[in-house]
Specification:
elongated, mainly alpha
Amino acid sequence: MAVQEGGPELRLKYSRALNLSEVESKQDPESEPYRSKYAARELLKELKAAVGHRAQAGESEDERAEDRRLQDGQWLQKLGVLELQLGLNHAETEELSAGEEHLAKCVRVLEAFKLSPEAVSVFIQAENQLGILWAGLEEMEKAKSYLEDAEALYNQYIKEIGTPPWDTHEHFLGEEDRLSEQERQKRFEKVYTHTLYYLAQVYKHLDMNEKAARYCHTTLQRQLQFNHYNPVEWAINAATLSQYYITKQRYMEGRLCLAASNVIFNQAGAVSSESPAEESEEERDRRDQLQQKKAEIARCWIKYCLNLLQDSRKLLENDIGELDWDRQEELKTKLKKEEEEKEQGRKSAVLFGSSDTFDLIQSVEEKVSCIYPVDFMKAREVFLVGQSYVREAKEFFQLDDHVTDHIEVVQDHSALFKALAFFEEDLERRCKMHKRRIDMLNAVYTELNPQYYLLVCRQLQFEIGDTYYEMMELKVSIANRLDELDSHNIKKINHLAQSAISYYSLFLDSLKNLEKKFPEQLESDVLRPALVAKFRIGWLYSKMITSDPKLQLENMQRSADCYRFVVDYCNCHADAAKAMEPELELCVEMATLLPARMEKLRSKLAPFT
């Protein structure tokens, strides 16, 4: 059907093209994935030819007449809409060069009208799409330029004009089908929200993290404000944003994002752990996806609790890693004042939601503090929240189906116990916490085949060795308070030392090549762990208690060999010396002192040999 000058034919053809592109294309067969898109493109080309002809014809007319100028502008604006739609069409069918050409043409055609209510939304959408296109091609600076122009135009339009602008498709609607001003404003705000969303992604790629977080936060807030969001997607984005705030020690904002994530996620519907017998495949897939997303949000909560405890420890520990009592009292006073100020400041902070969700979000927030815990009771409250989310995450990330994810959750659980143990004054109870860590780590380690999970096994070997090492240090501290050591304590200390040595040795053995030789040069990712393992094996052998002089001499020799290995390796590799700076001085000292002590012990033994 040829396009006539009249409006109905234009509107009908545009509506048909839109339906093909947005509705029928979803039903296209896999063998022809773009069939409907291509059909829509042909209609858009016909429309462009007709509209373009009218726009060009108008340029030669008497432009002094006001109605002629107005009519010419309307045809050019229609042309701009068609260039936008053709640009989208080509981009969606992976023809990026042609897509960029049409989008750029849209921007040129509408340049003179970009501050008019009829064209501003179309112009911003074209710049948004150009931003997306260039970002997809890794041209982030170009993408940023288009998106920042779109942002600036929105702000200029709101400030200078303010009238709710036309929606894109209204240029091909009859007068009776035009949108209300309220609907126009809603759609315009949605376009601008997309601008901010894309800017957040581009800023993130350019490592402008503070700006990316700010734009992401604003995007999430606007999506709730204007009620255009997918609850699951929104919840995941909010939980992801919380992780940025956590790394910056902005726990109030991080907690807010996570609490809002919980509340909005629940709008997606209940997540059942049961699988009904008559459940369809589609329903089962949706249930699994919801369970996975719920578990992912739970993992973000775990990181919140863990980081809060770990950052608190950094503020409270002394030079030897123990709790500084004076600093604890100072922080108690300081943080109490900060808590009051934060709660007041929270009222003016960037919040999420409306009155409908505000109370729900606040009730979730109140379950865990955003202030550093400074004593065991406060730390335990944070720990228990983290542990509840560990259980929630493990409901989905089970060992049989999600090995790596399950182990990471278990490692975080172990880290929560480690962080809590720092606040525990009773050394015996602290030992029990570390024993819990060993039990949970060993439970997954024994299930793994090192051939397939070598890196994970190495992590667990080192961590279990570390935990035995910490327990051994605690048992030595407890023993030092006794008048004299009994056989039970000696046996316990030696057992813990030998267990730590065993797991450190397993870790070091995993670094050897097929000929069972230790590498001459360690890879950067295992450099410090390997040398720390050697250093600690040396220390552990020196702490083992025995009444047998020959065994004592053997332990001293093993200890000296470990210290000497670290010293020799660091002498040959500058990067190792830098990595081991805290321990290297002691290694040098012990590598020098131990041979002299061993010689002295040998001389005592000489008369008896």
